[in-house]
């Protein structure tokens, strides 16, 4: 049985993606942490999971049904934070709408499909700029640089994105338009 690695996320607009990618590249150049460059800037709603190729249509149908009942959400990026001693990220405000969207996704999609429960910590929305290959020593240097820096941006996200790993990096597989029941169906 062939299967691929997927995750479900919200991707910000192109301007924010460019700004965040520049920070990821800076962390790669300055602190030798390139792992974050292997995915587009995003807020993870459901972390990576393996899914069989023959069941991808079922996964897509479930996400399509869910997205028809979910509303667009605003991402509010504000400053930097860290999961010591390996991860530096841009803080994303855990707004009620964002927390509700994530919880509803788990309830409506992940649980019925029996996606593996990979979430070990409570949902903490963030956009990673350095992780995994960031050494503890470089983490301390980078965190000293970023902890007091400002970063502010906000945007509305109208699509849920299913990403797939191609063996080298994460790429967008399919987008699902978020439209609450009150919105007309195109």
TrEMBL record:
Keywords attached to this entry: Ligase
InterPro entries per UniProt: 2H_phosphoesterase_YjcG-like, Cyclic_Pdiesterase
Domain of life: Bacteria
UniProt GO MF annotations: ligase activity
Pfam family, one: 2_5_RNA_ligase2
This protein's record includes keyword Ligase: yes
Protein name per Swiss-Prot or TrEMBL: 2'-5' RNA ligase family protein
């Amino acid at each position: 049985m062939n299967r691929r690695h997927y995750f479900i996320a919200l991707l910000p607009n192109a301007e924010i993606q460019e700004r965040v990618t520049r920070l990821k590249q800076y962390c790669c150049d300055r602190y030798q942490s390139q792992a974050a460059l292997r995915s587009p800037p995003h807020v993870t709603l459901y972390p990576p999971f393996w899914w069989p190729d023959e069941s991808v249509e079922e996964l897509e149908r479930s996400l399509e049904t869910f997205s028809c009942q979910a509303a667009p959400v605003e991402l509010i990026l504000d400053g930097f934070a860290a999961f010591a001693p390996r991860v530096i990220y841009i803080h994303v405000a855990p707004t009620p709408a964002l927390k509700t969207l994530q919880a509803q996704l788990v309830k409506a999609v992940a649980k019925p499909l029996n996606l593996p429960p990979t979430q070990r910590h409570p949902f903490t929305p963030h956009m990673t700029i350095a992780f995994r290959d960031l050494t503890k020593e470089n983490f301390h240097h980078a965190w000293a640089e970023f902890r007091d820096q400002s970063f502010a941006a906000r945007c509305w996200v109208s699509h849920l994105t299913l990403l797939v790993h191609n063996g080298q990096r994460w790429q967008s597989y399919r987008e699902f338009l978020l439209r609450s029941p009150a919105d007309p169906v195109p």
